Automatic annotation (TrEMBL):
<keyword id="KW-0456">Lyase</keyword>
<dbReference type="InterPro" id="IPR009006">
    <property type="entry name" value="Ala_racemase/Decarboxylase_C"/>
</dbReference>
<dbReference type="GO" id="GO:0033387">
    <property type="term" value="P:putrescine biosynthetic process from arginine, via ornithine"/>
</dbReference>
<comment type="subunit">
    <text>Homodimer. Only the dimer is catalytically active, as the active sites are constructed of residues from both monomers.</text>
</comment>
<feature type="active site" description="Proton donor">
    <location>
        <position position="394"/>
    </location>
</feature>
<dbReference type="GO" id="GO:0005737">
    <property type="term" value="C:cytoplasm"/>
</dbReference>
<dbReference type="GO" id="GO:0004586">
    <property type="term" value="F:ornithine decarboxylase activity"/>
</dbReference>
<dbReference type="InterPro" id="IPR022653">
    <property type="entry name" value="De-COase2_pyr-phos_BS"/>
</dbReference>
<comment type="pathway">
    <text>Amine and polyamine biosynthesis; putrescine biosynthesis via L-ornithine pathway; putrescine from L-ornithine: step 1/1.</text>
</comment>
<keyword id="KW-0663">Pyridoxal phosphate</keyword>
<protein>
    <recommendedName>
        <fullName>ornithine decarboxylase</fullName>
        <ecNumber>4.1.1.17</ecNumber>
    </recommendedName>
</protein>
<comment type="similarity">
    <text>Belongs to the Orn/Lys/Arg decarboxylase class-II family.</text>
</comment>
<dbReference type="InterPro" id="IPR022644">
    <property type="entry name" value="De-COase2_N"/>
</dbReference>
<dbReference type="InterPro" id="IPR000183">
    <property type="entry name" value="Orn/DAP/Arg_de-COase"/>
</dbReference>
<dbReference type="InterPro" id="IPR002433">
    <property type="entry name" value="Orn_de-COase"/>
</dbReference>
<feature type="domain" description="Orn/DAP/Arg decarboxylase 2 N-terminal">
    <location>
        <begin position="65"/>
        <end position="308"/>
    </location>
</feature>
<dbReference type="Pfam" id="PF02784">
    <property type="entry name" value="Orn_Arg_deC_N"/>
</dbReference>
Length: 466
């Protein structure tokens, strides 16, 4: 069980004062209060596209830290036995990591750089799993020096590497699962088939390495909860192989893949499958299968997008427009160019297979955003037209939407917003063509209870000051 949440240390901030910071993070960023709409309106009030300095009208994110807090509370409600180790690669924003650290999560790091970032925020190495089965030798040596002593493997050569450079490291064998029901499939690159596990464990025993458990990953963005049942069945088989090899596993890592839209259904499958394949008689404290860990079987997971997907929204500025563009007589009537694209936050279109939908922030420089609007969020009565949306670089591949519908009145200088942009966006944004990735404006949200809770958690941990 994670540590309880502290009560608020001060009266909660007023959400109406969206342009007034309620605190500052240790890294220097201001934190505000108020909704996404309030933050966008306040931020745009400080930007004059006709007079600002170069890059003054750059695209920017608004991040609601209270939404991350709510996701964490949801996780504790649905999967109280499973400690989340946040997948840093999904969104490595320092404020996200600071908040999750204060909430008591662990961290799934895939590289030396991610490890150094987490450690640099004062987080203990004991809260890190180096969850990359194929690591550079220099990274393994650095992990030893930094006290990182839990990592995954799925091949014989990795065992030889660990023996040479970090022989006391605790190892977790990553097995192959069926990831065909996920948006991003990882099994083509990682995971040992069950038929290979006995040989891997035999080699680990010969090298006198300590294998402590099993991990798997059903793929990023899993849309079939049943995939977890199949994976847990395979994991139990791997546990049995470990016992046959003379090991007493006490760690199960069920990986990531958790989607916000079907999380409740996934959690139900996971709970039921754990009862079926890892019953208390074997794996609870005192169970016959877990003898060396007083708390019984330790279960962790590696959620990423679950925490941040809907906590970030992105505002982009229309920097150019071409009118009258028709591709086939029925295609887009205009081309809009915005100041962030596929080489920036919208790399998610390529690498994460996301589908984005723009809403209108401003028309004729007037704020018109309607977060609850089902379509583009246009004011009533606005004439719409077919158009395409493009990024700012000189690459013709930099296309956001080849065809969509937006108000005909949308003009150069106006703003669009893209919701649910927290996962696998900022993490892979580049400076191609010399363009700066979007900055982030943080808020505690408009819900007073959530804002108060986050304010208290961050303040108590020393991550937020006045």
């Amino acid at each position: 069980m994670l540590a309880p949440y502290p009560r608020a240390l001060t009266p909660p901030p007023e959400p109406e004062a969206a342009s007034i910071p309620v605190g500052k993070l240790a890294s220097g960023e201001h934190v505000y209060s108020g909704s996404f709409a309030q933050q966008f309106e306040a931020a745009l009030g400080d930007i004059d596209v006709d007079t600002c300095e170069a890059e003054g009208e750059n695209a920017f994110f608004v991040a609601d830290l209270a939404q991350i807090y709510r996701q964490h509370m949801w996780w504790l409600q649905e999967l109280p036995r499973i400690v989340p180790f946040y997948a840093v690669k999904c969104n490595p924003e320092p404020a996200v990591i600071r908040l999750l650290a204060a909430l008591g999560t662990g961290f799934d790091c895939a590289s030396n750089g991610e490890i150094q970032q987490v450690l640099g925020l004062g987080i203990s190495p004991s809260r890190i799993i180096y969850a990359n089965p194929c690591k550079a030798a220099s990274f393994v040596r650095r992990a030893l020096k930094q006290g990182i002593d839990l990592t995954t493997f799925d091949n014989l050569d990795e065992l030889d590497k660990i023996k040479r450079f970090h022989p006391d490291c605790k190892l977790v064998v990553r097995i192959l699962t069926d990831d065909s029901k996920s948006v991003c499939q990882l099994g083509i690159k990682f995971g040992a088939p069950l038929c290979d596990v006995p040989a891997l464990l035999a080699r680990a025993r010969a090298l006198e390495l300590d294998v402590v458990g099993v991990s798997f990953h059903v793929g990023s963005g899993c849309y079939d909860p049943a995939a977890y049942r199949d994976a847990l069945m395979r994991a139990r088989a791997a546990f049995d192989m470990g016992e046959a090899a003379g090991y007493n596993f006490d760690l199960l890592d069920i990986g990531g893949g958790f989607e916000n839209g079907n999380f409740g259904a996934i959690a139900q499958v996971v709970r039921d499958s754990l009862d079926e394949y890892f019953p208390d008689v074997d794996f609870a404290p005192g169970g016959r299968r877990v003898q060396r860990h007083r708390d019984g079987l330790r279960i962790i997971a590696e959620p990423g997008r679950f925490y941040v997907h809907n906590a970030f929204s992105l505002a982009t500025n229309i920097i150019a427009r071409r009118q009258g563009h028709v591709t086939d007589g029925n295609g887009p009537q205009a081309m809009y160019y915005q100041n962030d694209g596929a080489y920036g936050a919208f790399n998610c279109l390529i690498f994460d297979h996301q589908v984005v939908r723009p809403k209108v922030l401003t028309l004729d420089q007037q704020f018109v955003y309607r977060p609850d609007a089902p379509g583009a969020g246009e004011p009533d009565g606005e004439e719409m037209h077919s158009c395409s949306v493009w990024g700012p670089t000189c690459d013709s591949m930099d296309c956001i939407l080849r065809e969509t519908t937006l108000p005909r009145a949308l003009d150069v200088g106006d703003w669009l917003v893209y919701e649910n942009m927290g996962a696998y966006t900022l993490c892979a944004a580049s400076s191609f063509n010399g363009l700066r990735p979007p900055r982030v404006r943080y808020t505690l949200g408009s819900d007073i209870d959530g804002a108060q809770a986050v304010y208290a958690v961050l303040s108590s941990a020393g991550h937020l000051c006045n």
